[in-house]
Specification:
By secondary structure, the chain is mainly α. 77% of the residues lie in helices and 0% in strands. It has ten helices and no strands. Its main location: membrane.
């Protein structure tokens, strides 16, 4: 076992969480409370999730319900992070467009069986990747639009449609949302050893098998995130997802 569940683990986690919050406060990053809340929520959600996954893994109905819950939470989290108005629910579209086809393809081809212990982790990775790409892409696009709206109006004055004028301004900034995933994929095995690789090794798989699984995860994530960023870019350009 990589990290034995013991009092020492709990103490180290609390110390690291408090240290992160303290440094954020010292640097005046304005996220100290968010860090503490995120850490506490993560602990509670993982505790409940660990117990729940063990139950739903053997039942198809609860398994599908759990996947729907994962998607709904991802959409709500991404939407509220991008905008505070009622257009937040549009964030479900890029997450679904990115993750659902890939999950469906993996199930149809038999690469991932419809079993809880196989489907839930893969779906969680892909939905989580789509969530991250949607948040980063949506926020960058709307920030850029707010900062450079005068250029959008200038483009419209030259005859561009609303959508095209917005695209010209926000596309480069939105594309930056792909950089974390690209950098992780480019440096895997040299700088980073992601969780799927380490988990397979700890589970008894050979390094070749672990590498194959990790490659699959990274390539699938890139596909998911590219689709999510492209869709959120289009939503912002068309004014579906916006800020007041």
């Amino acid at each position: 076992m990589l990290l034995p569940v013991s009092p020492a683990l709990g103490i180290v986690l609390v110390v690291l969480l408090l240290l992160a919050a303290a440094i954020a406060a010292w640097a005046r990053l304005g996220r100290s409370r968010d860090i503490l809340v995120a850490g506490v929520r993560a602990a509670a959600q993982l505790a409940v999730g660990s117990l729940l996954i063990g139950w739903v893994a053997q039942r198809l109905g609860p398994l599908l319900g759990f996947l729907v819950l994962m998607f709904a939470v991802a959409a709500w989290t991404a939407g509220r992070r991008v905008t505070s108005n009622r257009t937040w629910w549009w964030a479900a579209v890029p997450i679904g467009a990115g993750a659902l086809p890939v999950i469906g393809l993996l199930v149809v081809t038999g690469l991932v069986p419809v079993r809880g212990l196989a489907l839930i982790p893969v779906a969680g990775i892909l939905i989580g990747g789509a969530l991250t790409a949607t948040v980063l892409g949506g926020r960058r696009a709307l920030d850029e639009l707010a900062t450079r709206y005068g250029e959008v109006e200038a483009g419209m004055a030259l005859g561009l449609l609303d959508r095209d004028a917005r695209l010209e301004i926000v596309r480069p900034a939105t594309a930056d949302a792909l950089l974390p995933g690209l950098d992780q994929t480019r440096t895997v095995g040299l700088v980073t050893l992601p969780g799927a690789f380490v988990g397979m090794l700890l589970g008894g798989a050979s390094p070749v098998e672990a590498g194959a699984v990790q490659l699959f995860v990274l390539v699938a994530l890139m596909a998911v995130q590219v689709v999510a960023v492209a869709v959120v870019l289009e939503l912002v350009a068309r004014g579906r997802l916006h800020r007041d």
